[in-house]
Design brief:
about 35% strand, 5-stranded mixed β-sheet, 7 strands, 5 helices, alpha+beta, two-stranded antiparallel ribbon
Length: about 180
């Protein structure tokens, strides 16, 4: 864990804010993710704009993420750059936590709270915006020059050329053709 990285940068002291809209800007890099011990993202340069609308009984936060990151391809293990854009809305209510489980994007703060740290919400939002399958763009268009992909294609061709048809499936193939 990188103890040098200070997440206090993401603290919002909301008691001193007047009611209305307030804007906050953040930029996160690799040290941010090292603090969470998340190493799937390399070279992140993500800019975050947060609009906080403070009211007497709650705060509404709107996060907008935009930037570039480097991921490792699941197929070729080659790194590639990709852009990331996302948004996330969060409601912060003051008082006791409700028992309603349907409020997943709501945080409750007690009466003694005076600040809100956004680091966890930012981390979760960025990680959830990552693609499920991380595929290098060169895999789709065939422009990726990778030893692993060349080996995979060669082994697939060899496997297909040596495969013996299974006669047990012949009757089913006839059904699907008709």
């Amino acid at each position: 864990m990188n103890l040098k990285y200070n997440h206090k940068v993401f603290d919002i002291y909301f008691l001193s804010l007047k009611e209305g809209i307030h804007h906050f800007n953040y930029t996160i890099d690799k040290h941010f993710f090292e603090h969470f011990e998340f190493n799937d993202i390399m070279n992140p340069d993500i800019h975050i704009d947060v609009d906080l609308f403070k009211r007497s009984h709650l705060m509404e936060l709107k996060f907008r993420f935009k930037g570039t990151i480097t991921l490792v391809c699941d197929l070729s293990l080659e790194p590639f750059n990709t852009s990331i854009t996302s948004h996330y809305d969060l409601v912060v209510k003051f008082g006791q936590k409700a028992t309603n489980a349907s409020e997943s994007d709501v945080i409750y703060l007690g009466p003694s709270e005076y600040k809100l740290n956004l680091a966890q919400q930012i981390y979760e939002s960025v990680v959830l915006s990552l693609p499920i399958k991380k595929i290098h763009p060169g895999v789709h268009d065939g422009s990726l020059d990778s030893e692993l992909m060349a080996y995979y294609e060669t082994s697939q061709k060899q496997q297909n050329s040596h495969s013996v048809p299974d006669s047990r499936w012949d009757k089913l193939r006839l059904i699907t053709k008709n």
